[in-house]
């Protein structure tokens, strides 16, 4: 995609607990993600995938434990731009146009020349012709594109996708896979949660399975890629 | 358990003595007669209600800054006890006012403030029933509780100020003002009693909340096993 | 300063969104108008009666309208989870509250100024003589309504029965605003209108107290 204006960043989860009332959504999750890895999290609904991603995005605070971003030499780096987060919800305003939305979020983040940046991203995700359309009129595929554009505004080193393939038609999935290929090639660290094997999961360099809030399998420690993704469907 | 029964017994004895004092030891008020004796329940109830809500405020602040559940338990316990005393005040006002003045209610500063307090803390308790996640519930209600308590001096100030321009009969006058010495003693004795009762009730309610939390932990552990 | 620039940007968004649909403004205006008309049936609107009851009824109408108008404030950020997007983008979460409360104050003031002539005509109460002062009183009152209403809107958005909950939480809290605004307004509708700076000062104190509370605790309302 865009030429990297970021430095490669890894993520460390240390003994993350997340409680909702008495229920543990995550239990003592410890993971080390190297810079540039493309990790897929698999697991049943309620296994903690979304929670983990939201904690990495710093939207949710862990009940215990820490999450830190690491620079190339493995040291903590807090000056990195915030991670890009793409969920099933569009996270942009329906009542504003695509361009207005991107300019708004660019200005909030203090990005220089917000209008130019917004236009550049719209072009990259293929929404330039719809720049003046209200997001309310967008299809599911287009919604994902504007969501990704918003997430990339600040050129993040880390991108998080929560169930990106859900609700997309085959064309949408292909487009997303292509986009993911580009993001991976640019050296970004990518975490995503998926339900099963697909064109998208094939792009991952590592797979981790979560069950009831704990890590139960990790390709880094020898588990089989396919079984992690398929077991989740069982 | 034995300690609790002992304390309860002490409270009962003290309250009985207080009732006796109000009914027989305090002299009869010249203008209003026997019905005035309800003053010894009415005025201290108001003061103790306010004290309870102050304790609730402390619990709310404690939770927001420490996020430890026990502050939330303190908050809800004090709010419920405060509501009880508030209700006593609102009920005893008309009971006194009607025989004396023929009116059931007057919007004097104290009664109006109490009514607004009653509404505010009813909202606090209602809010708690409408949020399911216990941590969210504790945080949200704590912040509302803080807002509610910050409002109290503003409500009181605005009503009093307003009343100086639109005077109305004041039920029972100021606390302790113009009281004959024996009456004053009975008044403060009642205040002390009600405060002891307040502490006892808050502690019991707190213990109930702590137990409830224990039961829920056990249920969850059982489910997980 | 980042807080200020974020607030200005978000304020722009709030205003643009509202002026595009005008849903909130039109429904609020119609609602207040309806209450004003209905109230006029409950007593004989002679000049003396109107001067006595009018200001209170007017502010009661404003309070009810505010408690309805402020509901969507944070609810609409739940559509598409735009609240998360804002939290990720702004440097200080207080900017979110500040922008919304300024917008809400402006909306409320706008509806009130619009309806003042209607009130004046229906209740035979002259408002022209003290119009600028009335606007000032309405501004201070609206600020009070907004500061508390915006905060409570964030609270009620996280509970069930949120449509009924906001008025329930908000209205008792606004007692001081009702009293202060009514008194200040009443003093401006008499033959010799006088500005009650004491009540205005009181409203200012109210605003400062709750704005400070919102600044201290607001970000906890947005947490997950």
Q: How would you portray this structure in words?
A:
The complex is a heterotrimer of chains A (234), B (225) and C (224). Chain A has 234 residues and is of the alpha/beta class. Chain A has helices at 49-56, 98-108, 114-124, 140-152, 170-185, 225-231, and strands at residues 10-20, 23-33, 38-42, 64-70, 84-86, 158-162, 189-194, 206-211, 214-218. Chain A has six helices and nine strands, in the order E-E-E-H-E-E-H-H-H-E-H-E-E-E-H. The termini of chain A are far apart. The mean pLDDT of chain A is 89. By secondary structure, chain B is mostly helical. Helices cover 81% and strands 0% of the residues of chain B. Chain B contains six helices and no strands. In chain B, helix 4 (109-129) runs antiparallel to helix 5 (134-165). The mean pLDDT of chain B is 86. Chain C is mostly helical and 224 residues long. In chain C, helix 3 (47-69) packs across helix 8 and helix 3 (47-69) runs antiparallel to helix 9. The longest helix of chain C is centred in the middle third of the chain and has 30 residues, at 94-123. Chain C is globular and about 55 Å long. The mean pLDDT of chain C is 92. Classes of the chains: A alpha/beta (234), B mainly alpha (225), C mainly alpha (224). Chains in contact: A-B, A-C, B-C. The B-C interface holds B 64, 116, 119-120, 123, 126-127, 130-132, 136, 139-140, 143-144, 146-148, 150-151, 154-155, 157-159, 161-162, 165 and C 148, 151-152, 155-156, 158-161, 165, 168-169, 171-173, 175-176, 179-180, 183, 198, 202, 205-206, 209-210, 213, 217, 220-221, 223.
| Helix-strand topology string of chain A | EEEHEEHHHEHEEEH
Determine the structural class of chain B based on helices, strands and strand pairing. Answer: mainly alpha
How far is the first residue's CA from the last residue's CA of chain A? 36 Å
Helical content band of chain A: 25-40%
Number of strands of chain B: 0
Number of helices of chain B: 6
What is the radius of gyration of chain A? 17 Å
Give the overall pLDDT of chain A as a whole number: 89
Main β-sheet of chain A, in a few words? 6 strands, mixed
Biggest interface, residues from each chain: B-C, 28 and 31 residues
State the main characteristics.
heterotrimer; A: 234 residues; alpha/beta; 3-stranded antiparallel sheet; 6 helices; C: 224 residues; mainly alpha; 10 helices; globular
């Amino acid at each position: 995609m865009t030429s990297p204006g970021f430095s490669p960043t890894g993520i460390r989860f240390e003994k993350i607990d997340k409680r909702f009332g008495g229920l543990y959504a995550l239990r003592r999750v410890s993971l080390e993600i190297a810079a540039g890895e493309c990790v897929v999290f698999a697991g049943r609904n309620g296994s903690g995938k979304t929670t983990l991603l939201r904690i990495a995005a710093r939207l949710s605070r862990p009940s215990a434990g820490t999450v830190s971003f690491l620079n190339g030499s493995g040291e903590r780096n807090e000056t990195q731009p915030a991670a890009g987060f793409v969920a099933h919800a569009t996270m942009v305003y329906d009542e504003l146009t695509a361009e207005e939305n991107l300019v708004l979020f660019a200005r909030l983040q203090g990005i220089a020349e917000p209008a130019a940046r917004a236009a550049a991203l719209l072009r990259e995700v293929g929404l330039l012709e719809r720049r003046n359309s209200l997001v309310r009129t967008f299809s599911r595929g287009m919604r994902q594109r504007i969501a990704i554009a918003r997430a990339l505004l600040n050129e993040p080193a880390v991108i998080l996708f929560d169930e990106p393939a859900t609700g997309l038609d085959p064309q949408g999935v292909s487009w997303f896979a292509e986009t993911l290929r580009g993001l991976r090639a640019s050296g970004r660290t990518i975490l995503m949660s998926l339900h099963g094997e697909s064109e998208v999961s094939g792009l991952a360099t590592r797979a981790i399975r979560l069950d009831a809030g704990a890590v139960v399998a990790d390709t880094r420690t020898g588990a089989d890629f396919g079984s992690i993704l398929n077991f989740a469907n069982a | 358990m034995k300690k609790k029964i002992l304390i309860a017994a002490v409270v009962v004895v003290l309250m009985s003595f207080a009732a006796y004092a109000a009914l027989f030891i305090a002299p009869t008020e010249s203008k209003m007669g026997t019905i005035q004796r309800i003053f010894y329940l009415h005025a201290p109830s108001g003061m103790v209600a306010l004290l309870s809500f102050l304790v609730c405020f402390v619990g709310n602040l404690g939770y927001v800054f420490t996020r430890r559940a026990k502050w939330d338990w303190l908050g809800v316990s004090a709010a419920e006890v405060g509501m009880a005393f508030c209700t006593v005040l609102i009920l005893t006002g008309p009971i006194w006012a009607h025989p004396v003045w023929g009116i059931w209610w007057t919007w004097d500063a104290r009664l109006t403030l109490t009514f607004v307090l009653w509404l505010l803390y009813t909202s606090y308790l209602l809010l708690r029933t409408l949020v399911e996640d216990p941590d969210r519930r504790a945080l949200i209600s704590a912040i509302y509780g803080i807002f509610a308590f910050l409002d109290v001096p503003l409500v009181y100030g605005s009503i009093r100020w307003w009343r100086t321009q639109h005077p109305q009969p004041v039920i029972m006058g100021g606390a302790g003002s113009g009281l004959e010495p024996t009456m004053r003693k009975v008044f403060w004795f009642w205040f002390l009693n009600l405060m002891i009762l307040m502490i006892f009730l808050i502690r019991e309610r707190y213990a109930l909340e702590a137990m409830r939390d224990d039961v829920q932990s056990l249920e969850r552990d059982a489910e997980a096993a | 300063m980042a807080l200020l620039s974020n607030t200005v940007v978000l304020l722009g968004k709030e205003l643009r969104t509202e002026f595009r649909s005008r849903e909130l403004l039109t429904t609020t205006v119609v609602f207040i108008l309806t209450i004003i008309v209905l109230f006029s049936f409950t007593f004989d609107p002679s000049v003396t009666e109107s001067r006595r009851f009018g200001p209170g009824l007017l502010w009661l109408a404003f309070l009810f309208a505010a408690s309805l108008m402020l509901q969507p404030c944070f609810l609409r950020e739940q559509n598409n989870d735009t609240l998360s997007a804002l939290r990720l983008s702004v440097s200080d979460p207080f900017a979110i509250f500040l922008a919304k409360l300024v917008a809400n104050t402006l909306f409320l003031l706008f509806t009130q100024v619009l309806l003042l002539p209607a009130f004046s005509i229906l209740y035979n109460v002259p408002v022209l003589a003290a119009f600028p002062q009335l606007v000032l009183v309405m501004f201070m009152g609206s600020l009070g309504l907004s500061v508390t209403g915006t905060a409570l809107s964030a609270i009620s958005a996280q509970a069930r029965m949120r449509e009924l909950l906001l008025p329930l939480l908000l209205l008792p809290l606004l007692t001081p605003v009702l009293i202060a605004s009514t008194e200040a307004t009443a003093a401006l509708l008499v033959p010799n209108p006088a500005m009650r700076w004491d009540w205005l000062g009181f409203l200012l104190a109210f605003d400062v107290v709750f704005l400070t509370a919102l600044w201290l605790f607001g970000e906890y309302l947005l947490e997950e």
